[in-house]
From TrEMBL:
Belongs to the Wnt family. Ligand for members of the frizzled family of seven transmembrane receptors. This is Protein Wnt. The keyword Lipid metabolism does not apply.
Amino acid sequence: MWKWFEPTGCASPPSSRSKKSKTTKSPWRQTWSTLSDLHNYCEEDSATGSVGTQGRLCNRTSPHVDGCDLMCCGRGYNTHQYTKVWQCNCKFHWCCFVKCNTCSERTEVFTCK
């Protein structure tokens, strides 16, 4: 199967140019590649330097490329739960100490299998 790629980051040539050289080539060349030539970024590949997506953070609710369904390449994801604890609502009392409450928040993080 063939897939068409257009160069990105190229602007259209300005229309104000009066003459074009006959030897000038257009920056808009056709680039063809077979799908088998494309790299599979789901798996680790030391030849290309790809680390794959295993262990990468993903968004469980996103339908986009950051979502666990796409990013984890159908392998599923792990759910990690942790509790973040910190001092909050601190008040300075005269003289001379600070009194704080302890706040906490339970968080879930998702990583690709």
